[in-house]
Amino acid sequence: MRTHFIHDRNEIDAILKQCKTCFVAMADNNVPYLLPLNFAMDGDQVILHSAQQGRMWETIKKNPKVCINWILGEDLAWQDIQVGCSYRVISRSVMVEGTAETVDDITEKEKIVRKFMTQYSDLSFKFNEPAIRNVGILLVKIDKLTAKEFGAKTR
Questions:
Q1: What's the pTM value of the predicted model, to 2 decimals?
Q2: What is the pLDDT of residue 152?
């Protein structure tokens, strides 16, 4: 069982489309801080949303550099059931390093929220102005994108 890099962006996007949660890592005064968040992809940007206040927002204001991770799959495999070191979790993982920026323009926020919902549903949604005004939107520009497949027998 091997670990393989995944280079095909279509394959990476297919992995991300199956995920519902990402884990966003930040540094808060050199202290690691990690949050699970919902997300969507928009080309070479990751869309994140949350409240417009709190530790995450304060951290991003001080240091907009983030690392985001997704993982798909949790099945166990082994080469020899008696040998602990031969066990592996079969999974695929995607990691992004990037720079986050907030979006304040209400028209842009509505457009982004519509795109965000495509990660979770094919339905068309309506949003009222207070909901759009009150949601916090972060766009993370992808500086580095890597993906791996773990526990693969062959590729």
A1: 0.88
A2: 66
